[in-house]
Design a protein that fits this description.
This is IclR family transcriptional regulator. InterPro entries: ArsR-like_HTH (IPR011991), GAF-like_dom_sf (IPR029016), HTH_MetabolicPath_Reg (IPR050707), Tscrpt_reg_IclR_C (IPR014757), Tscrpt_reg_IclR_N (IPR005471), WH-like_DNA-bd_sf (IPR036388), WH_DNA-bd_sf (IPR036390). Residues 6-67 form the HTH iclR-type domain. Residues 68-213 form the IclR-ED domain. The protein is of the alpha+beta class and 213 residues long. It has seven helices and eight strands; from the N terminus they run H-H-H-E-E-H-H-E-E-E-H-E-E-E-H. Helix 2 (28-35) packs across helix 3 (39-51) and helix 5 (76-95) runs antiparallel to helix 7. The longest helix has 20 residues, at 76-95. The protein is elongated, with a radius of gyration of 20 Å.
């Protein structure tokens, strides 16, 4: 901690991060041990966060992230989209296919940024806000592979006809971006994805991840 930072705010943010990393919530004792502070401090932090609906406690006393976080999260997508657009534009123009950034939203994949190539006669119409199950389409499959630790070789997912008849997709997961699960990919009207597309998508995903760090 430096003279310019707030110890209380720092601890509150650490509480939120700890709760975000668990599916079952944490008790006051568990938070106290993880933060290295006494239980009284944790009680005060939780009470303050509860007032803002950022934390909720169940009947068993376990604390979890509250619904107030969702209101803050609505402002995240525009920021993420802005950071990703340069890499997506370059990818779309290079490959001649529609490029997209897809993030996890609950149990679905949500397209939050889409860029279409400017020089092709035709391309797949893939719109911002498009949703699909995580286990269908290259974008979702790339995310699931990363979640399961399987996205190291070759580092991208390929699909054909899973979301739209006659369309093929390639996507690579975002790696090393705290708090964001997503992928960068392209979708094209073809029976298969050209060999160079997979590695190019991986490069684009790395560029987006760098922009978001």
């Amino acid at each position: 901690m430096t003279a310019e930072t707030s110890q209380t705010l720092d601890r509150g943010l650490r509480v939120l991060k700890l709760l975000a990393d668990t599916d079952h919530g944490l008790t006051v004792t568990e938070l106290s041990n993880k933060l290295g502070v006494n239980r009284t401090v944790v009680y005060r932090l939780l009470a303050t966060l509860e007032q803002h609906a950022l934390v909720r406690r169940d009947l068993g006393g376990r604390a979890r992230v509250g619904l107030g976080v969702l209101r803050l999260g609505r402002q995240v997508h525009p920021l993420v989209r802005e950071a990703a657009l340069p890499a997506l534009r370059s990818l779309a123009e290079d490959i001649g296919a529609t490029a997209h950034l897809t993030l996890v939203d609950g149990t679905e994949a949500l397209a939050v940024a889409v860029v279409e190539p400017t020089w092709t006669d035709y391309h797949v119409a893939y719109r911002t806000g498009f949703r699909h199950p995580l286990d269908r389409g290259a974008a979702g499959r790339a995310i699931l592979a990363a979640r399961q630790g399987l996205a190291t070789d070759p580092g991208y997912a390929l699909t054909h006809g899973e979301l739209e008849a006659g369309a093929s997709g390639a996507a690579a997961p975002l790696v090393g971006v705290t708090g964001i699960e997503g992928s960068v990919g392209v979708v094209m009207l073809s029976d298969s994805v050209p060999e160079r597309v997979g590695p190019r998508v991986v490069d684009a995903a790395r560029e987006v991840a760098d922009a978001l760090r």
